[in-house]
Amino acid sequence: MILLEPNSFVLEETLLARFVSEKPEIVDITLVDFDNVVYKVQTSAEQRTLLNLSVEIKYYNEVLAYGAEDILKREYGAYLVPTVNPQYQITLQFNLEQLPADKAALAKHVSMLKRNVLSSSFLRAFEFWESQQEGAGPLMATHYRDSEAIYVQAQHDRVTVIFSTLFKEEVDRVLGKVFLQEFVDARRQASIQNAPQVFYSSREPPLEIRHLPDLRQDESVGYVSFVLFPRHFADQESREKTISQIQLFRDYLHYHIKCAKAYMHSRMRMRVKEFLKVINRAKPDR
Fold this sequence. Notes:
Blueprint: H1 9-20, E1 28-32, E2 38-42, E3 50-56, H2 60-64, H3 68-76, E4 90-95, H4 103-110, H5 113-118, H6 120-130, E5 140-145, E6 148-154, E7 159-166, H7 170-186, E8 197-201, E9 221-228, H8 236-247, H9 249-281
Antiparallel strand pairs: 1-2, 2-3, 3-4, 5-6, 6-7, 7-9, 8-9
């Protein structure tokens, strides 16, 4: 089973191609990432050396409350410009004649933009843990997909992350339940005792979010809770790794559901071919 990269590879390749090009060209490219994030890479005929990257993030107004704007200023402050098109919430502008020497590193860093924006609620929760306040911190919800959300809440000794995920097909629901139950069971192995605790419920929301209105409670929705302990976010390296991996849980799950379905379909087609060979070799009784 593969692990997905936290950055947008297609965005990285697109930007790097523009950064290293000796002759600035007119470009107008639209890219789509996980969670319905849209990137618009564009230059104009009048100013070919100015490359604009506009980003549409539907949940941007939610993460603003958790400090996403401060993260953008810290990570991309030199390239941030006011957004002109109301469809996009973020715009970065690059002067192709004044780029840093390591253009590949810049393209890689910009391709992490979605990951960095979505990390705001996690960083806010880790800050609450560092403050050593008693009780539970605020429940931060990010509705990053239609009818799906990430909920993050900190306590003095842990941080709880809850995913609500939607299974639109019956087969996806069955396979998803098998995968998610394996997440719960696998932690019992001695070799991965340091992994976060995982809890799964197929219909009833976890206690932390049960009070929220308009939660779906039917067979098509599942709730997965990860309990992060200080060892998962106490130092900066562990913190960054945890954020990068846990954000992609939903994409990781549905990717492998699709892979499992594709594998089963290929095996069924192979079996049908074998049956057809047997039928073709058969001689009718006379």
